[in-house]
Design a protein that fits this description.
Layout: H1 13-25, H2 28-46, H3 48-53, H4 64-82, H5 90-111, H6 114-124, E1 130-132, E2 140-144, E3 147-151, E4 159-161, H7 187-202, H8 206-213
Antiparallel strand pairs: 1-4, 2-3
Helix pairs in contact: 1-5, 2-4, 2-5, 4-5, 5-6, 7-8
Length: about 220
């Protein structure tokens, strides 16, 4: 019996932009709060001189936990509304994944433990959390005719059942189909091939290749 095919949510440009704006409209103040946290954390870690100039001595934690919870509830609601197995447009998937991760990082900061954040995710989802096959944040070096280029492999952007354990790999970034070692899809191989095809089409000037390749590596939905 043939396996059911995933539902793909693509749409035209205007439709995608409406989806992205609708996501932000669900909790704009909470999103702004966790985004401010992310910016403060980044500046303090990477640019201490700028942090001093901006008078950022430490991360402002006021209202941060409530905002993180609200963002996590919003993202979960968005995923439930679309349904497990649906393949999101890459821009929508990235927005949802980014909002979720910033909220999680806020909880990591406040509680100094990822286990607590996982427990909150599971509780908010009533024991049935969902995740997005977004691929890893770590970049992968690929040998091409223009030299070694690095970019992060992409997932298929489908919604899948997240794990509920508070130990081990608590934040899966691959669905079962895309897991590099056991899935039917081979995302690392596909990533390398896509990058090499792009290099072949553009020539071997590394600066030209990188400028025109990095935003277009996605081979998933869209």
């Amino acid at each position: 019996m043939r396996a059911p095919q995933p539902r793909v949510c693509n749409g035209d440009h205007d439709d995608i932009e409406r989806q992205r704006q609708a996501i932000r409209a669900t909790c704009p103040e909470a999103l702004a709060r966790v985004e401010r946290f992310a910016l403060e954390s980044f500046v303090l870690e990477r640019w201490p001189g700028l942090a001093q100039a901006l008078e950022i001595g430490e991360v402002d934690e006021a209202g941060l936990e409530d905002a993180a919870d609200e963002v996590l509830r919003s993202v979960h609601g968005q995923l439930v509304g679309r349904g497990e197995g649906e393949v999101l447009h890459r821009l929508v998937a990235r927005d949802l994944a980014r909002h979720r991760w910033r909220a999680l990082e806020a909880l990591f900061h406040l509680h100094a433990a990822q286990k607590y954040a996982k427990e909150r995710v599971v509780e908010i989802a009533a024991g049935r959390p969902l995740a997005i096959c977004i691929g890893p944040r770590a970049q992968r070096p690929t040998s091409t005719a223009a030299g070694v280029l690095t970019a992060a492999p992409q997932g298929c952007y489908s919604i899948f059942a997240d794990q509920t354990r508070g130990s081990g790999k608590m934040w899966p970034v691959w669905c079962d189909t895309c897991k590099p070692r056991t899935g039917r899809r081979k995302p690392h191989r596909d990533h390398d091939r896509a990058l090499r095809r792009r290099v072949a089409a553009l020539g071997t000037n590394p600066s030209v290749v990188w400028t025109f390749t990095r935003p277009r590596l996605d081979q998933g939905a869209g």
